[in-house]
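NarG-like domain-containing protein: structure tokens wanted.
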Amino acid sequence: MLTVAGIVPLGAIALGMAAKLSHAAGDGYNYRETIGPWARSLFTLQPKTHLMTGVPVLYQVHAVIGMLLIAFVPYRRLVHMFSAAGNG
Ligand code: HEM
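Answer:
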């Protein structure tokens, strides 16, 4: 059965592809001037939230699901990517 631990990563991947494919015309959506600097601003703890205003909603939802997945890492088996495999 598909649990939250399966739905969140699949949702992140599906929404990433949906956002990309639905804005594929021409040069595509230029995330380098909005989502890119916004994501970097999170790491400096000075979030530039205004950069996400006007970003297509599929990218916004993708970013939320992506952050949800990252937040889950310490509490789910995903943490094993940082620890030795073997004993599960
Ligand atoms: C804060 C977290 C995240 C942000 C801000 C983010 C941002 C983005 C952006 C801007 C794109 C579009 C790239 C383009 O248009 O060329 C994208 C695409 C994509 N993302 Fe994410 N992402 C995040 C997390 C994740 C995670 C955790 C996954 C997978 C587990 C993921 C999977 C994908 C996939 C499959 C695509 C489509 C592939 C592609 O465009 O080449 N993303 N993401």
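Residues 50 and 74 are 29 Å apart (CA to CA). DSSP finds three helices and no strands in the chain.

Cheers.
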